[in-house]
Amino acid sequence: MSDLDQLTQSLARNLKRWRGERGFTLDALAARAGVSRGMIIQIEQARTNPSVGTTVKLADALGVSITTLLDYEQGSQVRLVPESQAVRMWSTEAGSSTTLLVGTEARGPIELWSWHLMPGEGSASDPHPEGTVELLHVSAGELTLIVDGAEHSVPAGTAATFEAHVPHSYRNDGTEPVDLTMAVSIPPVRRDGN
Predict the structure, then answer these.
(1) What's the helix, strand, coil split of the chain in %, to 5?
(2) Rounded Cα gap, residues 11 and 94, in angstroms
(3) pLDDT tens, 32-45?
């Protein structure tokens, strides 16, 4: 089974599991996530590989990390994720990429990301649920962080945090690659869907 097939199967199984756990009908999850009912059915039947944006919307709507939706081994108290098992979520021909390193569901989902942005490239994110916080640390280059329309320069060695319930994006306006580590803390979803 290829990595992509394994990812498709894991996502199908985990999406069904968490939708059931939250007590969401297909229609309720579709409305909450802003994703069509048909797309959710295709994902749950492992007939499609959704975009990163769709996967993020579903994870946010369920109140779980992307790691939880994609993971095929959950359980132990200590979880080591070798580099070879980190999930490459986005990449470009020029060499930019994002890699989801690890995530947890303790007191609401928490995700840890490794980013590599080539000069002139960037990535935008839809607003996350109210109460979501992102923390990041730039280890190389200079990141342009745009939060709710305001640009912030984040040079190497600098950390930043912000409430991520507004539109936000990450851009490399410089001439050298930007490397950063980011943690995302998402508030838990109550079973009644609120």
Answers:
(1) 30, 30, 40
(2) 28
(3) 999 999 999 999 99
